[in-house]
Design goal:
- This protein is α+β, with helices and mostly antiparallel strands.
- It contains six helices and twelve strands.
- It has a single domain, classed as Jelly Rolls (Sandwich), CATH 2.60.120.330.
- A hairpin with a 2-residue loop joins strand 3 and strand 4.
- Helix 5 packs across helix 6.
- The chain is globular and about 45 Å long.
- The two termini are about 30 Å apart.
Length: about 240
C-alpha cells in the first residue's frame, strides 16, 4: 500500500492535489455513534454558554476568511493537543465524550452567524478527519451548506460527517439564524504513531499563519523556505 504523504498548507503549497476523497466514509467508526447519540447534551452545553454571553467565544483565528471578523466565532477546547483548560471545565460532558476517542487533536464549538460566507480556502493538513457534529442547522442546501472540492453537503441536526480539510472548501449560511457545530479533528489511523510531531508542526504553521495577517510577504516565500520555517518553529512547540 502506498504511504500517504503528510501535507501542510503552509509548508508545502496552497494547492492540495492529494487523492483523498472530499468526504470520508465514517459509517463504521465507533466514535460516530458515540457523538451522535450524545449530541443533544453537547448542544445544551453550547446553548448555555451562548445564553450567558460567554466571553471566551472568540473570532476564528484567521479573521480574513469570513464575511466580517466576527461573523465566525469559536469556543476553543483544544488546538492540536494544546488544551484551553478554562473552556474545557465549562463543558464537562462534551470533554467526557471526547476523552473516549483516540486521536482527538483539536476540538471547538463553531458558530456561524446569519448571512455569512467563509471564503474558499485550503485547510491546515490532510492528516486528520475534520469532523462536524451538527448541533443546530437552520436550513438545508442550497441556502446553507459546505462545499469541499466541488461536492456539497448540508448539516443535519445530530449528524456527524467528516471531510478532508486539505481540499479547497467553503461555507455559506444565507439563513436568518446561526449555525452551530462541534468541530473535531481526529488523526487518521495511519498517522496516529506520529501524533506528537504532527501537532508540533501544525502549531508551528498556525503561528506563522497569524503572522500572515500582519506580514503578508511571508506567504510569498519559496516553498523550501516555508518548510524550513515550519520545521524550525516546531522545535520550540510543546
Amino acid at each position: 500500500m502506498e504511504k500517504i504523504k503528510k501535507w501542510y498548507s503552509f509548508a508545502e503549497s496552497e494547492v492540495f492535489t492529494g487523492s483523498e476523497p472530499p468526504f470520508f466514509d465514517i459509517s463504521q467508526k465507533p466514535w460516530k455513534k458515540l457523538l451522535e447519540e450524545n449530541y443533544a447534551v453537547i448542544s445544551t452545553e453550547l446553548m448555555r454558554l451562548i445564553n450567558k454571553k460567554e466571553p471566551n467565544i472568540i473570532p476564528y483565528l484567521n479573521q480574513t476568511l469570513a464575511s466580517t471578523p466576527t461573523s465566525w466565532t469559536i469556543f476553543p477546547l483544544r488546538m492540536w493537543n494544546r488544551p484551553y483548560e478554562e473552556n474545557c471545565n465549562k463543558v464537562p460532558f462534551t470533554m467526557q465524550m471526547l476523552s473516549k476517542i483516540n486521536g482527538v487533536t483539536s476540538c471547538s464549538f463553531s458558530i456561524l452567524k446569519p448571512q455569512t460566507k467563509i471564503k474558499p480556502h485550503f485547510g491546515d493538513s490532510n492528516v486528520m478527519y475534520r469532523c462536524h457534529l451538527t448541533l443546530k442547522s437552520p436550513g438545508m442546501l442550497p441556502e446553507i451548506g459546505l462545499r469541499v472540492n466541488g461536492k456539497e453537503i448540508s448539516w443535519e441536526n445530530g449528524k456527524l460527517f467528516a471531510f478532508c480539510d486539505a481540499h479547497k472548501h467553503e461555507v455559506w449560511n444565507n439563513t436568518k439564524e446561526e449555525r452551530w457545530v462541534l468541530i473535531i479533528d481526529i488523526l487518521r489511523e495511519e498517522f496516529l504513531s506520529e501524533e506528537k510531531q504532527i501537532c508540533k508542526e501544525v502549531n508551528a504553521t498556525l503561528w506563522w499563519q497569524l503572522k500572515f495577517q500582519r506580514f503578508y510577504f511571508i506567504k510569498h516565500l519559496p516553498k523550501f523556505s516555508r518548510r524550513w520555517l515550519m520545521k524550525a518553529t516546531a522545535v520550540f512547540m510543546k
